[in-house]
Design a protein that fits this description.
Blueprint lengths: L2 E5 L2 E3 L5 E8 L8 E6 L6 E6 L6 E3 L7 E6 L4 E6 L8 E6 L14 E5 L2
Parallel strand pairs: 2-10
Antiparallel strand pairs: 1-3, 3-8, 4-5, 4-9, 5-6, 7-8, 9-10
Length: about 120
């Protein structure tokens, strides 16, 4: 069964940092662009960041630009999302998928909960 396993979420104070991990299970990441997506409580899921397969080109939503950093380690079959200067509006479930578009046909994980609160 192919899927992602996300981890690294938790409760953090505003201004704090977290590093999320997304490990591929049952397949290899080598040829996939990987996207991170955020679903805030009561809102639609939206793209946060993405990294391509060939040259590692990255994209960030304006809301996280300068605060979040995406990276990948294909040898470990893992994509990371470093989150700095966290804000309460960053609260929600973070999931990864095998594209930058977040399609229903992508491979997804269950997500990891991030809560930013004092």
């Amino acid at each position: 069964q192919v899927h992602f396993v996300e981890s690294g979420g938790g409760l953090v104070q505003p201004g704090g940092s977290l590093r999320l991990s997304c490990v591929a299970s049952g397949f290899t990441l080598d040829y996939h662009a990987i996207g991170w997506f955020h679903q805030a409580p009561g809102k639609e899921r939206e793209g946060v960041s993405c990294i391509t397969a060939n040259d590692g080109t990255t994209w960030y939503a304006n809301s996280v630009k300068g605060r979040f950093t995406i990276s990948r380690d294909d040898a470990k079959n893992t994509v990371y999302l470093r989150m700095n200067s966290l804000k309460p509006e960053d609260t929600g479930v973070y999931s990864c998928a095998t594209s930058c578009l977040g399609l229903k046909t992508d491979i997804w994980g269950q997500g990891t909960q991030v809560t930013v609160s004092s």
